[in-house]
Inverse folding.
């Protein structure tokens, strides 16, 4: 039976994931206790230092195994997915790491973790071990809960305790400082989906227009459902909840991806969080990154804690585990002046009513066609042709008063600079090649049809495609031939539209993006680039009304 997840036997998933980590992380080993005992330990731990031990259910990677290493945890005890490790696994880990200096257990305040780690600690004390338990209960979603859940603030506690142990602090000093930080941590999560358990489908409690606030890390429902909104709305809500009741003074902020948020979206959230109230209070930020996940949950959690000199030193000291991200000072984006392009020529704005009208018509047409073109592109590309060309149209419309409209070669050069800056990607470069090629030919005295041919040849030379490869060329070359034979823009636009529609019958190409797509996806779908060209020519024809001389 196949699987849509990367695993073999679900019963061995956690063991195999741990072994995968050990294969790529020097200085670590595991105790020989599979499947019931899954304990990862340092092989180079200082036997005279207090041992720092943590753990819990798996599925929260890199927690907790990912934090075993110099400067953080001495060992971690892993349970099955979202399940606390059994008491004998915790006892075994204590037996391996405990020494005369003692051992600090960092425990998240979930019932299973609290019971199993607590019983193991009690038994260890009974036979003479110096054991201290630090309980992390940083979830603020349920302010009146007797046992708030332990969330990503646990990672900050790992870092503080590991630093103090490395510095030679005694077991009571470490436990006291770690518990104080745990008590000060405030965390809240927000998600758009729940987690997906391997071999099982995603729980269907989320609607497309609903987000949940105040989730734990085991896929349990949030305490509140809210309508979906913009990233700025989510950031404001999270900041308000975190800062309501927070102490005065500088804060450290940890921004945690719960498992499935793309980096570009995390960047948007970070910008919104740190540009607002939270950024005004934050001195240091950790992340964004995956610090304590919930399998593939599409959501984030944010943790804050007050800073003092001890915490500042402990949380910024270097450590071995790659899963930890060193805190950095919060700062505003640095913006530098744009450089002057030495080869460019200054142009004076000028007006030409006909060309202004034509360019406005093109910009309007590209905006109107955006959704149509994006839909077409989704069949053969990444679904952004309409969005890309609409951005180019906006750049033109917004700069009309700055363009040398009365000087056609200079105008084409200026348009090339604006559309390549606004569009980017291959489309922006291809349009830039077309416009630059036309500008050069016109400056050399060629007529507009010949200039268009020069631009198309530049596109072919650098882009690698030719007529018949399902690109803009399939609409533009037929239009050029009409103009070269003395036809007007209306006739050229009509031919371009028919040629663009005919690309739906081309199911095999040797170059261009369609060469990467199978015939089944191409058949019946016209090339979006060719359709763009038809739209542009039609807009010009409507605005100009006759001839190519405008």
């Amino acid at each position: 039976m196949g699987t849509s997840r990367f695993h073999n036997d679900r019963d061995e998933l956690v063991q195999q994931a741990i072994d995968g980590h050990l294969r790529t992380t020097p200085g670590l080993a595991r105790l020989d206790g599979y499947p019931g005992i899954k304990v990862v330990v340092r092989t180079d731990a200082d036997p005279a230092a207090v041992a720092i031990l943590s753990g819990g259910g798996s599925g929260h990677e890199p927690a907790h195994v990912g934090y075993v290493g110099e400067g953080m945890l001495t060992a971690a005890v892993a349970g099955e997915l979202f399940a606390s490790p059994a008491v004998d696994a915790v006892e075994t880990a204590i037996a391996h790491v405990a020494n005369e200096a003692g051992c600090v257990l960092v425990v998240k305040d979930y019932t299973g973790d609290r019971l199993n780690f607590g019983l193991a600690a009690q038994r260890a004390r009974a036979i003479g071990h110096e054991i201290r338990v630090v309980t992390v209960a940083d979830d603020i979603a349920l302010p009146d809960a007797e046992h708030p859940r332990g969330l990503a603030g646990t990672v900050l506690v790992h870092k503080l305790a590991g630093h103090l142990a490395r510095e030679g602090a005694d077991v009571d000093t470490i436990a006291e400082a770690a518990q104080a930080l745990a008590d000060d941590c405030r965390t809240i999560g927000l998600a758009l989906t729940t987690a997906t358990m391997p071999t099982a489908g995603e729980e269907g409690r989320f609607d497309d227009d609903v987000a949940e606030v105040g989730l734990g890390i085991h896929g349990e429902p949030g305490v509140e459902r809210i309508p979906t909104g913009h990233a700025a709305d989510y950031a404001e809500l999270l900041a308000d909840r975190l800062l309501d009741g927070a102490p005065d003074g500088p804060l450290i902020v940890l921004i945690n991806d719960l498992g499935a948020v793309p980096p570009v979206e995390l960047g948007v959230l970070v910008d919104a969080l740190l540009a607002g109230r939270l950024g005004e209070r934050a001195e240091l930020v950790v992340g964004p990154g995956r610090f304590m996940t919930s399998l593939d949950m599409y959501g984030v959690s944010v943790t804050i804690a007050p800073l003092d000199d001890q915490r500042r030193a402990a949380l910024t000291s270097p450590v071995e585990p790659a899963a930890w991200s060193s805190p950095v000072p919060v700062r505003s984006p640095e913006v530098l002046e744009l450089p002057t392009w030495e080869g460019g020529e200054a142009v004076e704005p000028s007006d030409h009513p006909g060309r202004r009208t034509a360019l406005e018509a093109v910009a309007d047409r590209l905006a109107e066609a955006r959704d149509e073109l994006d839909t077409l592109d989704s069949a053969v590309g990444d679904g952004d042709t309409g969005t890309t060309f609409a951005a180019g149209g906006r750049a033109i419309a917004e700069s009309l008063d700055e363009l040398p409209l009365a000087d056609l070669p200079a105008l084409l050069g200026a348009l090339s600079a604006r559309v390549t800056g606004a569009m980017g990607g291959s489309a922006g470069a291809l349009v830039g090649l077309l416009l630059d090629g036309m500008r050069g030919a016109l400056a050399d005295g060629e007529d507009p049809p010949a200039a268009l041919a020069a631009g198309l040849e530049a596109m072919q030379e650098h882009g690698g495609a030719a007529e018949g490869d399902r690109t803009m060329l399939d609409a533009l070359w037929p239009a050029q031939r009409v103009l070269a034979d003395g036809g007007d823009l209306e006739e050229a636009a009509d031919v371009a539209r028919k040629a663009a529609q005919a690309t739906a019958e081309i199911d095999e190409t040797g170059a261009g993006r369609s060469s990467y797509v199978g015939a089944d996806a191409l058949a019946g779908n016209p090339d979006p680039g060719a359709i763009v060209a038809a739209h542009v020519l039609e807009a010009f024809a409507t605005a100009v009304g006759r001839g190519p001389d405008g």
About this structure: The chain has 19 helices and 13 strands.
